[in-house]
Design goal:
By secondary structure, this protein is of the alpha+beta class. It folds into two domains: about 120 residues, D-amino Acid Aminotransferase, Chain A, domain 1; about 160 residues, Alpha-Beta Barrel (D-amino Acid Aminotransferase, Chain A, domain 2). Helices cover about 30% and strands about 30% of the residues. It contains eight helices and 15 strands. The strands form two sheets. Strands 7, 8, 9, 10, 11, 12, 13, 14 and 15 form a nine-stranded mixed beta sheet that branches. Strands 2-1-6-5-3-4 form a six-stranded antiparallel beta sheet. Strand 8 and strand 9 form a beta hairpin. The longest helix has 19 residues. It is globular. The chain binds 4'-deoxy-4'-aminopyridoxal-5'-phosphate (PMP). The site of 4'-deoxy-4'-aminopyridoxal-5'-phosphate (PMP) has 13 residues, from helix 6 and strand 13. Its EC number is 2.6.1.21. It comes from Virgibacillus sediminis. It is an enzyme of class 2 (transferase). This is D-alanine aminotransferase. Its cofactor is pyridoxal 5'-phosphate.
């Protein structure tokens, strides 16, 4: 049986959710998904820092230090002999009688984590996929990685029903991000992506892509752009943990650029893969 992390202990996976866990009833919690490549978690510290920030924004005190989280998650990866896949980590405000307000001080946040084996998505990264557009109907704190994902679920379902890999979200004319990834466009060799504010999740992959672009001298603009600008872009790609960088070749039936993965996207993907290579071989 696979192992999970439960309140600081590595135990067998079992049906342990309390019916009154606030994550289960209110989506009152935060989470992270960390990519694992050949047994090595990628950018674990960045993910843990984002978890701490998300928790702080909903006034939830993490019950372990980041150092302790790191130790426990590494132990979990080993216990499950995980090679390729992800770690899912969540912290809820705990289990208590169901009242909307925060429970009393005696209620401890509940930390759980598990791993899932997943193949690398190199084929779709190399070949690209299609996307659909859908209105961004989420709340105004998309910077917090909370368990409330129903609008994202509905958007992704629309993508899948249309044979697309992602649903790109827009608030009115402005493109924000996608259901589970950040969106970038390339125009005349320059990169544009929505600024990291309350309208998007500041993706760890997004931040790495921006760092890569600065390193290889691709001009970057953390600036909003419209749906029309998206459709008129030379290249579009989305980024997320473990699916890394996926070129988008068509949006709502409109071909993007040449309809093939673009050169700038390819350059960034190559650099990203060399970071993974370094991770695995050092
Ligand atoms: N935006 C949203 C809404 C997400 O859910 C995710 C994570 N899947 C991302 C962006 C990408 O973030 P990261 O690169 O940290 O996985």
């Amino acid at each position: 049986m696979s192992k999970i992390l439960f309140d600081g202990q590595i135990i067998d996976r079992d049906n342990l959710v309390d019916i009154e866990d606030r994550g289960y009833q209110f989506g009152d919690g935060v989470y992270e998904v960390i990519g694992v490549y050949e047994g090595r978690p990628f950018m674990m510290d960045e993910h843990l820092h984002r978890l701490k920030r998300s928790a702080g924004e909903i006034q939830l005190n993490l019950p372990f230090s980041l150092e302790e989280f790191r130790r426990q998650l590494n132990q979990l990866v080993k216990a499950n002999h995980l090679d390729e896949g992800i770690i899912y980590l969540q912290v809820t405000r705990g289990a208590a009688s169901r009242w909307h307000e925060f429970p009393g001080r005696g209620v401890r946040p509940k930390v759980t984590a598990y791993t899932r084996a997943e193949e690398r998505m190199t084929q779709v990264e190399d070949q690209g996929g299609h996307a659909v557009l859908t209105e961004d109907i989420r709340w105004l704190r998309c910077d917090i990685k909370t368990l409330n994902l129903l609008p994202n679920v509905l958007a992704k379902q629309k993508a899948v029903e249309n044979g697309a890999v992602e649903a790109i979200l827009h608030r009115g004319d402005t493109v924000t991000e996608a259901s589970a990834s950040n969106v970038f466009i390339v125009k005349n060799g320059e990169l544009f992506t929505h600024p990291a504010n309350n309208y998007i999740l500041n993706g760890i992959t997004r931040q790495k892509v921006l760092e890569i672009c600065r390193k290889i001298n691709i001009p970057v603009h953390e600036q909003t752009y419209t749906v029309d600008e998206l459709l008129a872009a030379d290249e579009v790609f989305v980024t997320a943990t473990k699916s890394d960088i996926i070129p988008i070749l068509e949006v709502d039936g409109n071909q993007i650029g040449s309809g093939k993965p673009g050169a700038t996207t390819g350059q960034i993907l190559k650099q990203f893969r060399s970071l993974i290579h370094e991770l695995v071989h050092t």
